[in-house]
Design goal:
The chain has about 325 residues and is of the alpha+beta class. The protein has four domains: about 10-55, 2-Layer Sandwich (Herpes Virus-1); about 60-165; about 170-255, Alpha-Beta Plaits; about 260-315, no CATH class. It is about 55% helix and about 15% strand. It is built from ten helices and nine strands. The strands form three sheets. The chain has a four-stranded antiparallel β-sheet, covered by helices on one side. The protein has a three-stranded antiparallel β-sheet with strand order 8-7-9. A hairpin with a 2-residue loop joins strand 7 (about 285-290) and strand 8 (about 290-295). About 15% of the residues are buried.
Length: about 325
């Protein structure tokens, strides 16, 4: 291939591609020194623009679209990587079932339930992503440029980014506060307790924990929740599934919800209280296709998972 500016041959390692006109340039022809070019990350290269496109009318008007497009592409890639990791894990679990028949029969029900929940969770996330992507593309196609429209897009992007950051987190409750005065020593004691609990669920969970921290200010006589940060979103999901699958959960835990998710759950609880007070019976809150909803208790037993009880983080 050749440079769009000087027409000389162009190596892939030295190329910059304009996100607007798709022209390919030597980094020097694009106005960049080699030191700065080598420091560019993948996202910066993917959003680079040539001089002509930067100077063209209306180029600033698509800045939000460029940012949104980059975020959508990043989310799509993360979804594919997570799907690939999930498929690999499922494949490895199935291959391991070639052991003794008695062991297979004992583990089949638990394994099958876990696989179904993982698949349902993935399909729910995929459906939610496709829905948001369709909404964003429809809004972009409408060509609206009002302040409110731009603000809504920014809020949606911010919410998606916040949920992505929290996807590796698990919130654990009711772990007693350390009596040690030194903050570092108290944290080490919390870490030892949490790792011991994780090993009860699955030995490798403890090694996948990256860090933990207490949430909020210390108040005498109260236990602050602990935020656990794992290596991958799939690990955080596996920990929650494993904890719910035990006859007696090792600890009280939930996913790390955004303020919007917690506000939505609070609204559902208020609505449930109003409907119950008005005489409706057998209603409860359950997750249906990954979304908390008010359903009949009989229906929830067939098709949904329960909302964690006594979860102060989502109140």
């Amino acid at each position: 291939m050749s440079c769009s500016k000087c027409s000389d041959p162009l190596l892939v390692a030295d190329a910059l591609t304009c996100v607007s006109c798709e022209g390919e340039f030597h980094f020097a022809c694009g106005g960049m020194i080699e030191q700065n070019f080598r420091k560019l990350n993948r996202n910066a290269k993917a959003n680079w623009k040539c001089f002509n496109c930067k100077a063209s009318p209306g180029s600033s008007g698509v800045a939000l679209e460029d940012k949104l497009e980059a975020l959508i592409n990043g989310m799509r890639k993360e979804m594919k990587e997570e799907a690939s990791a999930t498929r690999r894990e499922i494949s490895e679990m199935i291959s391991g079932l070639n052991g003794k028949l008695d062991s297979c029969l004992m583990k089949y029900e638990s394994l099958n339930g876990r696989m179904n929940e993982m698949i349902a969770n993935f399909e729910s996330n995929n459906f939610e992503f496709d829905r948001r992507l369709s909404d964003l593309e429809r809004l972009r196609a409408d060509g609206q440029s009002s302040y409110n429209h731009s603000l809504n897009l920014e809020l949606t992007v911010a919410e998606c980014e916040d949920r992505r950051r929290r996807a590796t987190n698990v919130i654990v409750y009711d772990i007693p506060e350390s009596a040690l005065k030194n903050v570092l020593s108290a944290t080490e004691e919390d870490l030892a307790r949490i790792k011991q609990s994780l090993e009860q669920l699955k030995p490798e969970f403890a090694s996948l924990l990256r860090r933990l921290t207490r949430i909020g200010k210390f108040v005498q006589g109260k236990c602050r929740p602990i935020k656990l940060v794992f290596d991958l979103p799939s690990t955080a999901t596996d920990v929650l599934i494993a904890n719910r699958s035990t006859q007696s959960p090792v600890f009280s835990a939930s996913s790390d919800r955004t303020p919007s998710q917690r506000a939505y759950l609070k609204g559902l609880r208020d609505e449930l209280a109003r409907r119950t007070a008005s005489g409706e019976q057998n209603l409860t809150i359950r997750y249906v296709s990954g979304v908390p909803s008010i359903v009949l208790k009989e229906q929830s037993k067939r098709s949904s998972s329960s909302l964690p009880k006594n979860d102060p983080h989502c109140a």
